[in-house]
Amino acid sequence: MSASSSSNLYSHPEKALEEHLVNVAKIAQQNFEQSPADFTGIMTRGRLMRLIRICGLLHDLGKATGYFQRYLFASDEEKKNLKAMEETHHGLLSAVACFYAAKAEFEHDEELKGDDRAFLSFVAFLAVKRHHGNLEDILDEAVLRDKEQVLMAQIESIDEKRLAVLNAILKQNGLKQDLTVENLKKWAMDISAELKTIRRKLRGLERSRSIDPYLATNYIFSLLIDADKSEVSTGRVLDRCAANLDSSVVDEYKKSMKFKDTFLNKLRQEAYDEVLLAPVDLEKRVYSINLPTGLGKTLTSLAFALKLRKDVHAKKGFFPRIIYSLPFLSIIEQNAGEFEKVLKAGGLDVDTSLLLKHHHLSEYTYKKGDEEFEPGEAKILIEGWNSEIIVTTFVQLFHALLSNKNKNLRKFHRLSGSIIILDEVQSIPFKYWLLVREILKTLTEKLDSYVVFVTATEPMIFSREEVFPLTDRKKYFNIMDRVVIKPDITRDISLEEFAESLEIKDGRSYLFILNTIKSAKKFYELLKQKAGEREAAYLSTHVVPFERLRRIENMRSGRVNLAVTTQLVEAGVDIDFDVVYRDLAPLDSINQSAGRCNRNWGEKGEVIVVSLKDEKRLYSSYIYDGVLLDMTRRILQKKDVIEEKDFLELIESYYSQMQDKKSSDRSRELLSAVYSMKYTSVDETPCISDFKLIDEDYPKLDVFIELNDEAAEIWRDYIRIKEIKDLIKRKLEYNKIKSDFYKYVVSIPMNVQNLPPEVAGFRYVNRNSLQDYYDEVTGFKCEGVTALW
Predict the structure, then answer these.
(1) I need a labelling partner for 48 at 20 to 30 A (CA). Which of 10, 500, 587, 635 fits?
(2) Would you say residue 740 has pLDDT above 70?
(3) Dist CA 677 CA 207 (whole Å)
(4) pLDDT tens for each residue of 264-285
């Protein structure tokens, strides 16, 4: 049988099944070859490559059935009926064939035990079975409930001559196992017993306390689903960018900026040189840039990552991707914009294959050189992190590491051989410290990755001995003398008392950081009365992002010298005030607030901590952990004035106490789920899908605010798009406006009494109704609820 013959089977209306299968296998293998992953043990690189090839070659074999071929070319009406039939689905039959092909592949591997061969085959089975869906509890996946009849019907519908042609082509591309109707029938009858035996072994995974099986399974799954989606859209693996990327581009940028010769800029350069001039030991996996706020950590971390990238390539032969992640969406655009300027200053043409922004509101435009991709292709490329430098959120990063969802896990394989920068790492909740430590530790060891912590308040996720410091942090903290913290928390006061006690001096700028939206709104009104003719700015998440960004820019440029905000300005927002008032919060939050005070070393700044209350309780108690607040209060009450040089010692004491007094039970529960690969759970047992980096404090609804002419035009586009009947086309059109659309969206409590009407599937406030729902200064008017941050 000639391999050039066509099977006349199709994976998609205009694509031969054999072409799709072979191409997916090749793309998956090419992506694997760019990655240095090696789990040792049974998951060696050689075995991983063979397993990936088998998964690629067989992941859609179930499309060879008569049922699926009929579905593919049916009318829209017929498709609805055929899609509802189990026999039309292709995942399970493909998985069964893949299981036995993997079994045959490793049958003569004498270094593998029988249980090891079975586990490798099961990983292939699982990846293929779920390649169009999400992963589930593996103990449930190892049970087939009354599926033999469906499988047999599918197999009997396969044209044997066409299957023979397909089999010959797949064997020429590396498949060892013959695919015949007779073999398929035998496997369909035997698979339940095979899985039953494996299921007994899977029960022992948790006792191993190893993360390797979880990471290896996600890695195989990620390579397969990314290759599958990429083959259908772009049909290939994009060439990696060969640009001369190293730290010299940051040096060129710094030269072009012509920074003034100030003491602060000298300190920034000193810290930068200390990080860049020290030799890099590639055996070290976790690094830290722990510097006071305002000392240029963002540029320094990028320069170090570029230097590390060059060293890794010189010694290991591959170019690591740089994954720069931040906790807040609000500063992604700011930092990605800065990176673009850096790269351009280095003489580079900056396209999406070099620098990519990815978050849930990303625009789906992708360009490589002169080639601009269609929106559907761009979506696949962006969500697959096809770039050298990826700027993304903590949510995108950690949900790629800890998830059962297809969409999240698709980019998991990009973490292999990467340099992961965690900026503002203190934002990771304590309850996840142990979990994050164990996952990152295994990731760096098995997937040959590197992690760089960037922060002014470095948490003890890893012990200090496990982290390689790139700066002498004590030296820089001891020099700092820009700001003092003055605790004024001996008694709890109302907002009215607080406003009455204030003395607003001419020539000084003031920032007030409150804990809830309700308290911020109320205090803003009180401050306006106190401030007289001085204009005050207001910020909270109930103000549309379009307006928030404008107000932050006004603060940054110095046009605003009185501002009331919630905590959204605490980390990464480059604003500078002479005096900061902060409602009581955990110490690391207070430290971050201090970073908004006298950043540029003018007249000495003050951060005054107060304890504000409403009629019932402290505002801080609505959103923060009571243990952390008590610890902070006790630490602050020991001194009347805390100098900036003492911040480091204070935060170290705080984190040490946190480890003693706070529980890591949530991390342990989720680690147990990781060890046992419990992706989902039908009961209350903790599972991997339970992991959520950001907990929802209360149910929320998104509301579109038609604030101005641009918003009105965007809403008209949205209505037009909603009328498109073709689902795929509708999604593509929506993705074009999504980023602009959400500039006018706020999230509000679901139980507000004044819920706006729903129009075309979205809550909507039109311009004629603005005064009923939205205040042009303080944002959405929540009636009947307490709006928290």
Answers:
(1) 10
(2) yes
(3) 12
(4) 999 999 999 999 998 899 999 9
Pair 125, 101: CB distance under 8 Å: no
Q: Are 779 and 540 in contact (CB under 8 A)?
A: yes
| Phi, psi for 537 (deg, rounded to 5) | -95, 155
Average pLDDT over residues 388-405: 96
d(CA 392, CA 412): 14
Question: Shortest CA distance to 516 belongs to which of 697, 677, 643, 689?
Answer: 697
Instruction: Show the tokens assigned to 27.
Output: 């793309």
Find which of 34-43, 54-63, 751-760 is predicted with most confidence, using mean pLDDT. 54-63
* Helix, coil or strand: residue 552: helix
| Stated length of the chain | 789
The gap from C-alpha 631 to its chain's centroid, in whole angstroms, comes to 31
Assess whether pLDDT exceeds 50 at residue 789.
Answer: no
- The confidence score (pLDDT) of residue 146 equals 86
User: What does the alpha-carbon distance between residue 789 and residue 787 come to, in Å, rounded to a whole number?
Assistant: 7
Q: What is the DSSP string of 398-460?
A: HHHHS---HHHHTTGGGGTT-EEEEETGGGS-GGGHHHHHHHHHHHHHHS--EEEEEESS---
With beta carbons less than 8 A apart as the criterion, state whether 392 and 324 touch.
Answer: yes
Kindly list the distances between the CA atom of residue 252 and the CA atoms of 247, 249, 258, 349, 390, in Å, as whole numbers in the listed order: 9, 5, 10, 15, 21
Give the per-residue pLDDT at 572: 65
CB of 430 closer than 8 Å to CB of 657: no
Residue in 62, 264, 69, 50 with CA at minimum distance from that of residue 176: 50
Q: How far apart are CA 688 and CA 681, in angstroms?
A: 9
CA dihedral over 781, 738, 355, 315, signed as positive or negative: positive
The 10s digit of each residue's pLDDT in 310-344 is 999 999 999 999 999 998 877 888 889 999 999 99
Half-sphere exposure of 381 (CA within 13 A, CB side): 30
CA–CA dist 312, 447 (Å, integer): 14
| SS3 state of residue 512 | strand
Given a contact cutoff of 8 angstroms between Cβ atoms, the answer to whether 444 and 255 are in contact is no
**R_g over Cα of the chain:** 29
Residue with tokens 């605490």: 570
- Cβ atoms of 389 and 346 closer than 8 Å: no
581: which strand partners?
A: 512, 608
pLDDT band at 179 (very low <50, low <70, confident <90, very high): very high
pLDDT at residue 1 greater than cutoff 60:
no
Mean pLDDT throughout 183-192? 96
Q: Please give the DSSP secondary-structure letter assigned to residue 298.
A: H
At residue 485, the pLDDT reads 96
Do 399 and 206 touch, CB atoms closer than 8 A? no
Range among 5-14, 216-225, 455-464 with highest mean pLDDT value: 216-225
The mean pLDDT of 673-686, rounded to a whole number, is: 94
Distance CA 485, CA 594 (A): 8
Parallel, antiparallel or unpaired: strands 419-423 and 322-326: parallel
Cβ atoms within 10 Å, residue 405: 15
Report strand pairing: 537-539 vs 562-565.
parallel
Residue 696, pLDDT score: 67
Rounded Cα–Cα distance for residues 513 and 497 (Å): 16
Q: Which helix (H) or strand (E) holds 121?
A: helix 114-129
Residues in CB range of 259: below 8 A, 6 or more apart:
265, 268
User: Which of left, alpha, beta for 363 (phi over 0: left; psi -120 to 50: alpha)?
Assistant: beta
CA torsion 395→551→620→461, rounded to 10°? Answer: 30
pLDDT tens sequence across 405-425: 999 999 999 999 999 999 999
Residue range 40-49: mean pLDDT, rounded: 87
Percent of the chain clearing pLDDT 90 (strictly above): 78
CB 290 within 8 A of CB 388: no
